[in-house]
Amino acid sequence: MRITLTMPLAAAAALLAVPVARGGDPPKKTPELVQKGKASFEVNCASCHGPAGAGDGAAAAALDPKPRNLATAPLKGGAKPAQIFDTLGKGIPGTAMIAFTHLPEVERWALAYHVAGLRDGAKAGKKK
Question: Which of 1, 47, 72, 81 is such that its CA lies 20 to 30 A from the CA of 57?
Fold first, then answer.
């Protein structure tokens, strides 16, 4: 007796080709969540992007291309929190920016809100 697995394998392959969707809706932006993002940024991002996101972290000099200035430069994937969240999940090929899928989803949202806040702060400083 021969068992054919063609259909189940094709279905499995089709499922693998579908982009991974994020969980539910983004968590509500709260001061506590933004603070969590700031703390995570200090641990996971500041070594390259610098404490204020200016791209001047301690590791920046050794990187090519240099880390992006998150506060003022255009962001490859977009600057809205959902776009920043997506970049955190995918990384940026050809750069040292890895995918941060090892971080829980809520922490990536916290980082996204924090980075968006860095940009808002830079815009507010220019208007003064």
Answer: 81
